[in-house]
Every structure is written in structure tokens, then in C-alpha cells.
Amino acid sequence: MEILHSAIAILAAIVLIITFKVDPVISLLIACVYLGLATGLGADGTVAEITGGFGEIMAEVGLLIGFGVLIGALLHSMGTFRDLVDILARRVGRRLPYAMAGTLSTIFPSIYVDVQVVLAAPMAKESAPAVDRRHGLPWLAGAMAIGIFAGYVFVVPGLAAVAIAGLMDVPLGTYLLYGLPIGLVTALVTTFLFRLLLGRGYWKEETDLDPDVVIEEGRVHDETEDVPKAEAASRLPLWVRLLPILVPLVLIATGAILDVADASNAVFAFLGDANIALFLGLLIAFGMVRSSLGADGVGKVLGAGFHTTGEILLVTGVGGSLGAIIAASGMAETLEDLFSADENAPVIISILLAWCIAAVLHFAIGSVSVGAITAAGIISPIVGSLSVDPVVIALAIASGAMFALHVNSNFFWMFSTLLDLSTKGSLKTLTMATSLGALVSLPLVLVASLVAAAT
């Protein structure tokens, strides 16, 4: 019954938001209350999971969101994104979505997905008109989505990739050897297919953008345009103005790589923590704008950022509450009982079964990493007796775990608010792109099984 009640709760939240225009926070809380009571958590248990899930997500991403949004506001005041977009438009032009998808999937997997979307969203919004005046934002949103998650599940040291490889007892080097090309090809092919989809009237600006967003001459009006501009700081070299982003990325990546290599120490662990790294980036950006605008000017810039931060934190936290309720309902255990791996199954059946287990678990639970880890836990005890290389089963789990990221994920709500998308718009971009990515990567995993069998 947990599966039925979870489906009802998720569907109800989507219908309330899209059809009846109920605010996402209210809709998600209604879904939380229904699911908690319907699955026997009781009044006290339901409240405990709602508040606990909210608090757990805030502990994980609250500061990341706050610091990232404030960095974005400060960089915007210096014209950093505008100048970066001008350069990218000259260098890659309409190929920017491919560049973004490829970079996110191969260079930045060591960076937490929450950090990636917080830092990439402002550039996507700013560059959208240069890519395509009508479809630039949704195309970049889809490219961001698949780039982030293809790297997350396929490319070491992405968190899900490391977890899957560890549970399946696959050496990280072996996993990277297979996963890196699959992740890159998946990101690029999905970005291409998504663009074809957009060209068929798929995107409706009037319903797929946040209704509070104003469109002016083909571009999104950002409230930070109404705050002072740091003219003196804007004359700094672009690479200097990008330091608030580059320094955190280098620190986090270095910390993650050293940790995987068992070469970390207390200093690198501290500086490589995402919260500390982003705070250092915020201090750098604050110093640049403060020297240009003074205390009052930088205060107005940060004020606009704080306004945006509050909205994102609330809806993200409630998304975490729904995830906690689903986890507490016993969903994972119920789904695990429904699946039983057949040790004597043919290779293709084993791969499809691993893919399906991961896809169903992710769709139900709302977390790519939890879905992947749970699927690996189900399959790992018998993987040694299957007639397929363990790395192939691990890749199949990674592929399925991307499928259909939707409203029961806190990332969905971060993505939606940071890119000024409506819930429908996020379903059309994030959910569709990750679903396409899961399907695109599946035949690549089958090819990998042939390579593994031949070596």
C-alpha cells in the first residue's frame, strides 16, 4: 500500500500545482500530511518526519544555497556573467548547451550537484537569449540537468558513481574507464535530442516559466537589475571576477580527489568542504563589490540575493520533507521485496533488471543516490554469480538511477526556483532530460557489456 499512497501523494501534488495553481509549498505539505497519515506514521510521526526532513535538507544544502545565490548576486552586479556570456557567444555561440553539458558531466562531477546548479543557473539565465531567443533557457536547463546527473552517476568522483562502484566492489579506475565515455556521450546526445523536442512546440513560455517572471524583449528580467552596479569592479579582468566561482570549485574538487585517493588531511578536508569553500568565494565577491560600491551599495545587492534565497530555501526544505515521509513509509523495503535477481538470467535481462530496479527506486524515493545505493544493495549479494561483469551491472544501476527526477526531490525545487521555471517547466526540462538520459545511456551500457566480455 505504500506504493499506492506514494503515487497518490505525488500525483496530487503535481495536479494541485499545475492544474489548480496552488503554491508548491502548500501542495507539497498536503502531500506530506496525506502520505504520513495514510501509511500509518500517525500525527506525531508525520509531523516529526516533515520537520526532520526539512531540517536534514537545510543542514545539507541550506548554506550552499544561501552562499551560492549571494555569490551570483554579487557577480551579477559586476557584470561578470554578462561579459562571460559575450565571450562564450563569440567562441561557441549556439553550441553553448553542448559545452555546458559536456563540462558538467566530465570536469565538475567532484562538485556536489547542489553547488553545480546554484553556480550554473545564473549563467544559463544570462546566456539564454544569445543561444536561442525562444528556446535558449529550456535548452540550457535541459543541458544543465543531464550534464550534472550524467557526471554524478557515471564519472568518478561523482558521489553516486563512487557509492555504486564501492557497493558493487568495482575498482574506481575501472568504473571511470567505462563511465567517463558513457557519461559524456549521454550528456551530449541527450542535449541534442532535447533540442529536437523543443523545436516541435514542446515549450510554452506562458505556462512553463514562473508566472512572476517578466519577459522583456526575449530575456528574463532579473530583480538584481534594479540594484546598484559595481562599475569599478566590473573593470577588473574577467578571470579575477570569476575567482568567487573558480576558487570554491578548485577547493572542492581538490578535497574530493584527495579523499578518494586517501591522501587528504585536516586542512584540505576543511577547505574542501563545500560550505567553507563557497563561503570563501562569497568573501572574495563581497570584497570586490564592497570596494566598488561601499557598505550601502553592497547591502542593496545582498538584499536582492536574500530575497531570492528565502523562497528557494522554503520550497527546497519542503521537498526534503516529502522525501523523508516517503522514506519513513517503508517504500524502499516494499520495493526491495518486489524484486528478486535471477542468477541464471541472460546478460541483457540482468542489465535491464538492474536498470529497472534503480529507476523505480529513484522515481519512488526521490533521490538519485539513495535509489542507486538501494539498488546496488539489492543486487550486490548475487552479482558475482551473474554471467556479466560487475562493472556493467554497476553502470546499469547508474543509468536507471537518473530516470525521471521529479517533485519528490529537493533538487527539483532548487532547479525550478533558481532558473525561474514553473513546476510544469521543470517537469518539461529536468524530468524530461534525466528520463531521456537514462534511456540514452542504456544502450551504451549494453555496448559496454560487449567490451567487458571481450576483455
TrEMBL record:
- The signal peptide here is none
Which segments cross the bilayer? 7-37, 57-75, 96-119, 139-168, 175-198, 238-258, 270-292, 312-335, 347-379, 391-415, 436-454
The record's InterPro entries line, in alphabetical order, gives: Glcn_transporter
Q: Which Pfam families match?
A: GntP_permease (PF02447)
Q: What are the protein's UniProt keywords?
A: Membrane, Transmembrane, Transmembrane helix
Query: What is the official name of this protein in its record?
Result: Gluconate transporter
Protein source organism? Nocardioides bizhenqiangii
Give the organism's phylogenetic lineage. Answer: Bacteria, Bacillati, Actinomycetota, Actinomycetes, Propionibacteriales
